[in-house]
Amino acid sequence: MSIEAAFDPFPILTTPRLHLRQLLPTDGAALFVIKSDFEVTKHYGQEPHQSVSDSLAWIDALRTSYARRTDIAWAVTLKDGTFIGACTLWNLDAGYHHGEIGYELHPTYEKRGFMTEAMSAILDYGFNTLGLHRIEATPFDDNGASKSLLLKLGFTYEGNLRQRYFFRDHYKDQLYYGLLKAEWLNR
Question: 76-109: b or e for each residue (b if 16 or more CB lie within 10 Å)?
Fold first, then answer.
């Protein structure tokens, strides 16, 4: 499949419990609930959004990067349409050999396997449809839930960039995880 065919129309993904679709401006208020949470945002080095306008600006930026074919951002909803989070496949290199994943989930829906389910669909899409060779993730060292998710998905811990980010008055280590297409297909 060509890259254009993979991006147009927007890739809608479904799983047994979830529907992954394009983030829309109508998701702004629901996304704000997640992105305004101090505990959630500490895990990716961003201060909480202060208003729905901040969340709408973030959605707009993601839609622009999608138009450039460098990032894909999905709204994660339950089958009934309830917005529970967002996932991205971003930093896609020009040759579409590698990309990076990111994710955030409303705390109410944690520890139920939703993010494992959503990310599995995205990894399938990245490797099988986009033809990526490698997908990476870069959580902070203190994000135990993210490290657990990545290991569950088959990622390999590849290294630690010590004190890479200065956030909330101290330096944080950033970890590198990688997953190769062959590893995903042979899991």
Answer: bbeeeeebbbbbbbbebeeeeebbbbbbbbbeeb
